[in-house]
Structures
1.
Amino acid sequence: MSFHYFYGGIKAGLMPTVPFSGMWSSIFQFGYVGVSLFFMISGYVIFYSAQGRTAAQFATARALRLYPAFVAALLMTTCFVYLFGSDKEAISPLRFIQNLSMLATDLGGEYVDPSYWTLRLEILFYGMVCLIILVGAAAHLEHFFLIWPLFILVAQFTPLSTLPLLSCDFAYFAAGALFSMRRTKAGWAPVALIILCYLESLYGAGIFTDDFGTRNKVVLPILTLFYLFFALLNKPAILQMELPAARFVGALTYPVYLVHQVIGCIVIRNFQTDDNRVVLILTVMGSMLFFAYVLHRVVEINGRALAKHVIDRLLGAPISWAENTLQARGNKKAIGTDPLISNDVLVEPVQAQRFPS
């Protein structure tokens, strides 16, 4: 919120420059680096979330985590822009529909809230993991995460870097998954690839390509701390820690992310004066936390059963059908290649006893 209210919102033209923004902007202009931590957490969690699940179960679990709050926040932001926004922020029905996919830019549109760009990367990451499970390669998920950083490395020196899943942003997802893998898998390979992901992260952040000025002097230690954080997270003493209200505070982070930028910037832009700017921004921050709590409580908790029913029907059922179809074809192909079986009919009745119906 501080990044968007003191720097990002001003730079994007969502709100005017304020007299005290110079000092605060210099402090919070690096807040965008926090997105990297968000991606690493996603990779860390998804590696375990995918274990022992079918493609349909994985997809519905991820959709249930993202979509209900997202749709509610999108509606809230759209209504707020309609009532208080400018012509520049106007949201057409087509733009709204494009945003419902979380892939607005891929459909030729613009995001209702610029923060939503990160959700596109999340969807691509989830889709990749879901596809791996769908084709029956879930047992090789570890192998994929071990070679993914190598693909990202090659892509940086070829035109392939523009392809989905091969930009340096995805090095954070891969690093999170590798750290998660390290909890149970020893050996040098995960460690070496985590180091590679770290270097790719620095490359993507411009550490190796830009002059080592103030920005890099700040971004380098922040990214390094993120990697050290996950290294410590795997220590038994850290894993056993219990932080008061951690689950509740963590649950609010996604709703806060969804609602704060456009709504907050519009309020600050429309109601700020020379005398109330600091108080107004602090009030807006508190209000965003309150809205996030309401969104979490009403949509993510009370509306969970309804959302799960809808997602199971619209997403889970088709993926489950595809999964069963692929599995049935795989079984049929395996039977067809057995030397004792021809056209699904056993050749020798005595030998057939070894194959239960």
Note: The radius of gyration is 24 Å.
2.
Amino acid sequence: MLGYWAIRGLAERLRLLLEYCEIPYTEEKYEGPEGRVRWFSKVKPSLLEKNAAINLPYLIDGDQVITESDAIVVHLCYKANKTELLGRDVKEQVALATAHGVFKDLYPNYIKLVYGSYNETRTFETALKESSDIFAPYLKKLNGLLGKKEYICGNLTWLDFGLADFFQILSLLDAKILE
């Protein structure tokens, strides 16, 4: 079972990876105030007994409770016997770590945009237009790492699922700018 808020967020790349690896799964989505209460007062305390670092997202696989999206990725790749998705050699693993680092530097800016506080003087639309300047240096780095390849390492890896999701969101936001 994959547990997360009722949004795409950090779990979307996990959903994509689960589907790609053809691993059957169910989801526990925490939505609205009731979901927050259920997560923090009931589910999280019970899962703390099985994993002291419990957080969202989490994956329950048999008696194993895994948290942190990167750890879940590693687990899923091994479970599906698709360890090549983790990088086939040290060169690919370094390339993945580099691109992932750039992505992790970019992501808080995206979170600030989508979960920011907006009002009449500071609208979402204004912040969205300004975000292209904020995102540009990170996107330039990712584009440079990608080069003419279809995937970061030239072959599909776990990071490509997260990047694909993020770029799809950016294209949706870009369409919003053009409205």
Note: The CA atoms of residues 36 and 42 lie 10 Å apart.
